[in-house]
Amino acid sequence: xxxxxxxxxxxxxxVIGFSGLALHAASAAGAEQSRPTVADAVAEMLRDGLxxxxxxxxxxxxxxxxxxxxxxxxxxxxxINRTLEFPQVETVASELTVPEVEDDNEIAREVGRVIRNYRxxxxxxxxxxxxxxxVVTLNGAVTQDRDKxxxxxxxxxxxxxxxxxxxxxxxxxxxxxxxxxRMEIAAxxxxxxxxxxxxxxxxxxxxxxxxVDQAVVMLVGSVRSxxxxxxxxxxxxxxxxxxxxxxxxxxxx
Length: 253
What we know:
By secondary structure, this protein is α/β, with parallel strands linked by helices. The protein has 3 domains: 38-97, 2-Layer Sandwich (Alpha-Beta Plaits); 104-171, Histidine-containing Protein, Chain: A, CATH 3.30.1340; 176-247, Alpha-Beta Plaits. It is 44% helix and 23% strand. The chain has 7 helices and 9 strands. A 3-stranded mixed beta sheet has the order 1-2-3, with helices on one face. It has a 3-stranded mixed beta sheet with strand order 4-5-6, with helices on one face. The protein has a 3-stranded mixed beta sheet with strand order 7-8-9, with helices on one face. The protein is elongated, with a radius of gyration of 32 Å. The termini are far apart.
C-alpha cells in the first residue's frame, strides 16, 4: 500500500516544478519586452531634445537608421550627431528628408543675409558661394581666431530648403608675420585719402577684403573704381613682409 502512495506524490511535485519554471520564463519574457531598447532611447532623445516627433528609429546591431521628414538640415545633422553619442551606436544610416523650396534665389538671399549678419566677419575674412538645387556652396578664407566655418555652417543649415552644404572655406595661417601684414595693410589702406571714405560709411567693414596666408596677400571684394583698386594693390605690395600680391578686386568698368 505504501509504494503506490509514494508513486502518487511524484506527479504533483513534478507538475508544481514545471509550473514554477513556466511562470519564471513568462516573467522574464515580460521583463525583456518592457525593457527600453536603444531605438526607444534614441527616439525619446529626438522627441524631447530636438522636438522631432515624426522620426522613426530602428536599430540593427550597432547601426541605427533614422527615417522621416525634419524641418531643416540643421535638425538632420543634429539628429545624426546626437544618435552617434549613444555608446551602443557606431553608425547611422540616414533616410531623413528636408522639405525643398522652389526657388534657389530665396535660399541665396537668406544665405547672404546670414553671412552679412555674422558678427565675426572682419576685413581679413572673405566668404562667398552659390546655391543650386538647394545645395549651398560656401567658399573663401577666414582667420582662425574662432571656428568660423563651423559657426557659419550651423547658421546656414537652419535656413529652410537647404539640402546640403559644401564647405570650401580655407583657414588662414596664424603666424605672427601674417598677423603683422594684416594689420599693416588694413591700417594703411583705411588711412589713405583715396580709401578713407570707407571708414565714414557707417559699415562695420569695407566691401574689400585683405586675405593673408603664408605672406601671400589676396585682395578680394569690391571697390568703387580702378584707381582705388590700384591704390590698394600698391599698399599691399609695399608692405615689408609680403611675398606676393593677387588683386582680384572688382569695380565698375
